[in-house]
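Appendix B, record 7
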Amino acid sequence: MEIITLLKRLQKIHNLIKEGKTGTPKEFAKKIKIGQSQLYYLLDDLKLKGFPIQYSRTLKSYVYHTDCKLEIDYSIRLIINNKTIIVEENKK
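Structure tokens (predicted):
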């Protein structure tokens, strides 16, 4: 389930940035198990979507320059003969 993997990765990225624990770009990429060039592409995409991400040379970590929260809600349901089977759900 690629979409679930991507959502979990996004949550991990958010948590590491929020806590100021990403480390350098090389370390951050390793923590989320992607290449460094993929990381730059991903961070650029998140910035375009409005994520207030910046790199702090002092902390040697990516941080948010504005306080923010990330909420991810999803559910996957299979409906057979009008009976719902919850395949996966994440609601906080």
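Remarks on this record: The mean pLDDT is 91. The beta strands are 53-56, 61-64, 74-80, 83-90.
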